[in-house]
Amino acid sequence: MAKSILILGACGQIGTELTYALRQKHGKDCVVASDIREGDATLMASGPFELLDATNYSALEDVVMHYEIEEVYLMAAMLSATAEKFPMRAWNLNMNSLFNVLNLAKEKKISKIFWPSSIAVFGPNTPKEATEQHTIMEPSTVYGISKQSGERWCQYYYEKYGVDVRSVRYPGLISWKTQPGGGTTDYAVEIYHKAIETQTYTCFLKKGTTLPMMFMDDAIKATLAIMEAPETQIKIRSSYNLAAISFAPEDIAASIALHITNFKMKYEPDFRQQIADSWPSSINDDSARKDWGWQHSFDLEKTTKEMLTNLG
Ligand SMILES: NC(=O)c1ccc[n+]([C@@H]2O[C@H](COP(=O)([O-])OP(=O)(O)OC[C@H]3O[C@@H](n4cnc5c(N)ncnc54)[C@H](O)[C@@H]3O)[C@@H](O)[C@H]2O)c1
């Protein structure tokens, strides 16, 4: 029998595309999408959906029992920029949703969890170039603190209770199917929309702010790959470094200008600059490549072509 999967936060930037990918792989009826709000019409028509608050343990347990769920993908969270505005709400959402899912697995009500961490676990004292898997981690944002704590709890539940939880530290994600949800790397999505609409963009990060980034198809590929890998290949139970490309705002602007020749960009850095400055500019993801065969496919040029073609 096909396994049953539940996605929490399925209407967000990653959850939407993950829902499509999992439904294509396992069949639409085996993949239950859920969120505190409805998604777009295409997502809602693509298979079963539940309105569900991931911080409500008993409601979550009901859905898990009703659909006989085996795997949970926890994509509900408050992202970096929004979390700086609502620190306690971010902490409560990011931690309580994770504890709920970890405890369901501890009680053997589900058998496998995917929970994403982020490059935000690193901080201003972390070496910025080719940041190692194991290095200084002193995050300075609420979001980063919640992700670092989450990583520790994942490892703890694996070691103490044998919970099969798997995780990657996503870099900034670029996609066209849904809008980003309040992160510091959102500029790298907005820029394509504005380039097509007005041929201009005012960037909230300054020139030279190089950050690790990835096209959504690669992020989905990594998510499916780590979840499918045999248990023995998952040697890191906190979260794996994951990388594809690194670039600064002027690099993405230049790649867009190759297609939209009159494209112009201005810089007006805001509070998000400080968050970006605390993050690495590139990531060493050798462990993911060695342990479960991670390989990215999209460079900046290919990403720009995909974005402009699909949004244009
Ligand atoms: N997008 C990125 O660039 C990026 C980078 C690193 C890590 N991540 C992580 O990946 C995960 C998904 O990120 P995303 O970009 O899709 O976020 P998003 O903000 O686009 O989506 C999050 C979804 O969670 C839903 N949600 C909020 N509160 C909820 C609750 N209480 N119960 C159920 N659903 C709730 C929201 O309605 C939204 O649809 C998060 O853990 C995020 O930290 C994302």
The whole-number mean of residue pLDDT values reads 97
N- to C-terminal distance:
42 Å
Please state the CA-atom Rg, rounded to the nearest Å. 19 Å
- Count every beta strand, where a strand is a DSSP E run of 2 or more residues: 14
**Structure ligands:** nicotinamide-adenine-dinucleotide
Q: What is the strand arrangement across the widest sheet?
A: 3-2-1-4-5-7
The coarse silhouette is: globular
Strand content: 15-25%
Total DSSP helices: 12
Order of helices and strands: EHEHEHEHHEEHEEEHEEHEEHEHHH
The percentage helix is 40-55%
Please state the structural category: alpha/beta
Uncertain residue ranges: none
Major β-sheet profile? 6 strands, parallel
Protein model, in words:
The protein has 312 residues and is an alpha/beta fold. It is 42% helix and 15% strand. The protein contains twelve helices and 14 strands. It has helices at residues 13-26, 41-44, 57-66, 80-85, 87-106, 142-161, 187-197, 216-228, 249-257, 272-277, 286-292, 300-311, and strands at residues 5-8, 31-35, 49-51, 71-74, 112-114, 117-118, 165-166, 168-170, 172-174, 200-203, 211-215, 240-241, 245-247, 264-267. 47% of the residues are buried. Residues 8-9, 11-15, 35-37, 53-55, 75-77, 79, 93, 116, 118, 170, 172-173, 180-183, 185 line the site of nicotinamide-adenine-dinucleotide. Nicotinamide-adenine-dinucleotide (NAD) binds next to helix 1 and strand 9.
Quick structural summary:
The chain is of the alpha/beta class. 42% of the residues lie in helices and 15% in strands. Helix 1 crosses helix 8 (216-228) and helix 5 packs parallel to helix 6.
